[in-house]
Amino acid sequence: MDEIVISGGHRLRGEIAVSGSKNAVLPLMVAGLLTDEELILRGTPRLADTRTLAKVLAELGATVAEFGNGPGEGLNIDTPTLTSTRASYEWVSKMRASFWVLGPLLARAHEAQVSLPGGCAIGTRPVDLYLNGLAAMGADISVEGGYVNATAKGGLKGARVDFPFVSVGATHVLLMAACLAKGETVITNAATEPEVVDVGTCLQAMGAQIDGLGTRILTIQGVEKLHGADHTVTRDRIEAGAFALAVAATGGAVTLTGIDEAALGALAPAMRLAGAGLIETDGGLHVTGPAGRPQPTPITTEPYPGFATDLQAPFMGLMCCADGVSRIRETIFENRFMHVQELARLGADISLEGDTAIVTGVEKLYGAPVMATDLRASVTLVIAGLMAEGETRISRVYHLDRGYERIEEKLSAVGAKIWRETL
Ligand code: EPZ
To answer: Ligand 1 center to residue 291 CA distance, Å?
Structure first.
């Protein structure tokens, strides 16, 4: 088992290239199942999650091949025929996005048996929106033995799908399903996250008829068949946000390449309030840390364009050393505060009141052994470790490897003292 070790207190300086987006590449890979032609995805990150999903797709009949010599090149997904319509618990329990194959399987093969993903560390995460939406499109759905069994004899039919609230995954799945349904589907309260827009843009390149990408109403005219495409994955705004926060936390100065300020969304004004500098340059987004301690800054997570839940934990990392009290409210997931206990081990002063963490900034954090509890919690511990005096040792780094490509290499290259130890 690997551990990440950080000797804190070093400013970050230089340039970091932002990788392709994890939360875009996963649904894009799933979208490869919708066609019998080849889908080429460029600029893909090499992550544990993409490798896991490649195995799920292979079980369904896809050939997933990496091309190029290094990270950032690409993947080919080729599914001439679907050889199975069953996604087993073994895989779906490892990574929730595997559940999303339900949409393409039902759309293309008119049947699917997909394991329920179950709960996970950050909340219960039900799938009612997916199932109700697909049922509205004519799917016959039952849940038995932990599996969703869905059939759509004669194919899915266009329908109106009104989501009661915004769900990224349910939007991905219904959008993919609607592309091959008969007639028109209207999805209201659709997610507008950049990753959804990226998937929609790729589907359009595959021949899908979609209107309204990036808005709350998507209108899709189903087509008989989708074809192959060559698509470049959007950059990872969540990875970029974590690096921007790491720079602010160390009082450094780093240019993030491949991304602009708009991509950071609501993180950008929050970082400015905290005292960080963000300047667009020809080379990328130049981030500088506050002159002294960060200013306390409140945030509330919301669906896009609000403050991303995936950046809540990393932002809390920065606020641990703010000069005052910050209220951090999580409205998307009910249990996404597991990093609080671990930050406390480094000396942070945080109390929880329902969905809000009250972070009283301390002058300094001190290195300690800590444990990663989920993906975004793990990068928060990296940020806190970079700020802390002394050595921080992070265990369970497989969480980190799910979503951050070569993070210790990227941070070392800008002056962090961070390395991996294999025990
Ligand atoms: C996606 O998860 C992301 N995952 C998450 O990133 C991200 O935190 C989340 O969207 C919100 O932005 C990927 O893209 C792979 P949701 P998803 O459906 O689609 C509830 C990370 O760290 N809900 O938008 O699963 C749900 O429980 C991950 O990279 C239902 O109640 O999130 C949650 O409270 C973690 N019923 C809320 O909606 C449903 O049928 C929003 O979840 C569906 C969702």
So the answer is: 36
Mean pLDDT of 210-225: 98
Identify the pLDDT of residue 297: 98
User: pLDDT band at residue 122, thresholds of 50, 70 and 90?
Assistant: low
Q: Tell me how far the alpha carbon of residue 406 lies from the centroid of ligand 1, in angstroms.
A: 25
* CATH code 3.65.10.10 region(s) in the chain: 2-19+235-422, 22-232
Residue owning the nearest CA to atom 10 of ligand 1: 168
Residue-level pLDDT at 94: 86
Cα(6) to ligand 1 centroid in Å equals: 30
Residue-wise pLDDT tens digits, 319-332? 999 999 999 999 99
Which CB contacts under 8 angstroms, 24+ apart, belong to 50-54?
50/22, 50/25, 50/26, 50/75, 52/91, 52/94, 52/95, 52/98, 53/26, 53/29, 53/95, 53/97, 53/98, 54/29
- Alpha-carbon span 298 to 394, nearest angstrom: 27
CATH architecture of the domain 22-232 equals Alpha-beta prism (3.65)
Q: Per-residue pLDDT averaged across 362-372, rounded?
A: 97
**pTM (2 d.p.):** 0.97
Q: How far is the CA of 356 from the centre of ligand 1 (A)?
A: 19
Q: Is 208 in the pocket of ligand 1 (CB under 6 A)?
A: no
**Shortest-distance Cα residue to atom 25 of ligand 1:** 169
Tell me, using a 6 A CB cutoff, whether residue 97 lines ligand 1.
yes
Is 2-19+235-422 assigned to CATH 1.10.10.10?
Answer: no
Whole-number pLDDT of residue 68 = 83
Pick from 87, 185, 97, 89: nearest CA to 136: 185
Q: Which residues pair with 63 in a beta bridge?
A: 78
Query: What pLDDT score does 267 carry?
Result: 98
Q: Would you say the CB of residue 377 lies under 6 angstroms from ligand 1?
A: no
Catalytic residues: 120
Peptide bond into 294 cis (omega under 30): no
Q: Is 169 in the pocket of ligand 1 (CB under 6 A)?
A: yes
Contacts of 284 (CB under 8 A, 6+ apart): 15, 255, 256, 257, 258, 259, 260
